[in-house]
Amino acid sequence: MGEQQDVGGTDRHDGSGAAAQESTDGGVEARLALAQDPGTTHLTLIDLAADPSPVVRRAVATRSDAPAQALRPLTRDHDREVREAVARNPSTSVANLLRLVKDADRWVRWAVAGNPACDTSVRQVMAGTADKELRGLLAESRELEPELAARLVDDVSPEVRERLAAHTHDPGVVTALLADRTARVRKGLARNPRTTAAQRGALAGDPVPDVRAALVLAVALDEADLRRLVDDRSVQVRMAVATSELVPAHIRQLLTDDPDELVARAAREFRPGPATSPVVRPPRVGHRGAGGGRDRSDSARH
C-alpha cells in the first residue's frame, strides 16, 4: 500500500513510442484520452504529468498505476485539484502523503485523511496540525493508534473530542471521555454503539438533557435505565423515549399518560419507521459536495 515503482531506462509496458509521441503532441482531448488509456506506458505518463492542461495532469494523478516519477511532481502542482487527486490516490507514497498533509489548501490536506495508504507517520503529523478539521478526521479513523487517541482525548477542540467520542473503539478512551466536562463530548459518547452497559447507565444519569436524549435515540438501553428515563424531569428526554425506534413498546406505553400532552400524544401515535438511521455518521473523509464553493484563493488553515 502506498508503494510506487520508479521507472528505469526501459518502460515495463510495450507500446509504440512514435504513436505516443504523436498523441502527446496532439490536442487536449487526445492527450486526455492518452492519460486515461490503461495501455499508456509509464514513460508517457511521466511526460503527461508535465502537460500544460490541468485536466490532463489530473487524469494522471488519479491513476493507481501511475509511476512515482509521474506523481511526485504533481504533489507540487499549482492546480490544487491535481494535488487533491494525488492525495486521494491509494498508490501515492507515504513520503508524498507527508508532503500533501502539510499542503496550504485544506481540501488537499483533508483528502490525505481518507487515503488508505495513510500510515502512522502521516497520522502523527495530523495529530499535531493546527487544522481542527484534519484532527477531527483523524479522530474518526478506525486505524487510530492508542497513543494518538490518548493525545486527542486532551485536544483543545471540543469538536475533535466529540468526534473521537462518537467513533472510538478504545474502551480506555471511552472511560476517559466520560469524565469530559463538555456536554457535546459526552453526547458524542452517547451516540457510540461500542459503549458498555455500565457506561450507558452512567450516560443515562448525565446532568445534561441533551446527552440523555441523544443516548435514548442512539442505542438500546437496559430496562432499568429506560424506566428511569420515563420519569426524567426533562420533557426533551421523555419525548426521546416516546419517539425512539430502540425503545420497547411496553416502555413507551408508560408515557401515554405523560403530564406533557405532546409527549403523551407522541407515545400514543408512535409508528415504527421503515428503517432506523445509522447510529454513528460515517467518517467525513474530506469530500466536497457539488458546488462546494471552492474559492481559487482558498488556502485556509485551521
Descriptive account of the structure:
The chain is an all-alpha fold and 302 residues long. It has helices spanning 17-24, 28-36, 42-48, 54-61, 68-74, 80-88, 94-100, 106-113, 120-127, 132-139, 146-153, 158-167, 171-178, 183-190, 197-204, 209-218, 223-230, 235-243, 249-253, 261-269. It is elongated, with a radius of gyration of 26 Å. The two termini are 29 Å apart. The model is unreliable at 5-23, 275-280 and 289-302 (pLDDT under 50).
Quick summary of this structure?
With 302 residues, the protein is mainly α.
Low-confidence stretches: 5-23, 275-280, 289-302
Give the N-to-C terminal Cα separation: 29 Å
Report the major sheet: none
Overall radius of gyration: 26 Å
Oligomer: single chain
Helical residue percent band: 40-55%
Number of strands: 0
Please count the helical segments.
20
Overall morphology: elongated
What is the strand and helix layout of this fold?
Layout: H1 17-24, H2 28-36, H3 42-48, H4 54-61, H5 68-74, H6 80-88, H7 94-100, H8 106-113, H9 120-127, H10 132-139, H11 146-153, H12 158-167, H13 171-178, H14 183-190, H15 197-204, H16 209-218, H17 223-230, H18 235-243, H19 249-253, H20 261-269
Keywords:
mainly alpha, disordered C terminus
